[in-house]
């Protein structure tokens, strides 16, 4: 346990006077993740499981209160995030009674998607992608690069596909430098009509807009095999932070999009 501090997780589950059972998680969690708690008979320790325990949601911090104090289980310290559950969590010891624990008063469990590690120049697949025939998004890969001669820095973020919504989110967090790279997305429309890929990363525009075609420049640092030798993608005007260099469709209903991006965290759909 460690001293309590702010959690990097976006979602929080709180339970007063915890009892064994399965509970709804944070109402802002788009995946509607449930939390299962198993409390020991003496009400001094418990086990938790996030979802079905197989991910992609993991615990970042758990704060366990008992008496006037709390224990803080800091799972994401030094980027060492636990799997989606743990056992033997307790409230603090009683004052002047070594080895005697307080009864559980309440629990705060902070959780989120497990961060994705992006290594410069290495293709990274999205998580939470169901490879079944009736899902819209079947492939989503991203690669980050240097830009304008500036060194590329490895990044952590969230890169996932939610086929319930459906959308693809590539989120490098708030602040810091703009991240540049390539995004490959394949959509399976089956027998339905093809639709343009859209995104919500255009400056000054609320909601989703069609991803435009890239302008082609004779100078740059990111090469695409889809472009002619010696040419590079460039973002068009009007505040766009992504553009496409390739769009292909086949008779089976598959549409592949190759995207050039310079952004923090838009969604594609």
Structure keywords:
single chain; 269 residues; 5-stranded antiparallel sheet; 47% strand; mainly beta; 0% helix
List the helices and strands and how they pair.
Layout: E1 11-16, E2 21-24, E3 34-39, E4 45-50, E5 57-66, E6 69-74, E7 85-90, E8 93-94, E9 97-101, E10 106-113, E11 116-118, E12 124-125, E13 137-145, E14 155-162, E15 167-171, E16 179-188, E17 198-199, E18 209-210, E19 215-217, E20 232-234, E21 242-249, E22 254-263, E23 267-268
Antiparallel strand pairs: 1-10, 2-3, 3-4, 4-7, 5-6, 5-10, 8-9, 11-14, 12-13, 13-16, 14-15, 15-23, 16-22, 17-18, 19-20, 21-22
Helix content range: under 10%
The overall pLDDT average reads 87
| Basic shape | elongated
Contiguous low-pLDDT stretches (5 residues minimum) are none
- Class from secondary-structure proportions: mainly beta
Strand line-up across the major sheet: 12-13-16-22-21
Count of individual beta strands: 23
How many distinct helices? 0
Biggest sheet: strands, sense, closure?
5 strands, antiparallel
Topology pattern, helix = H, strand = E: EEEEEEEEEEEEEEEEEEEEEEE
Give me the Rg, rounded: 23 Å
Percentage of β-strand residues:
over 45%
Span of the ends, CA to CA: 41 Å
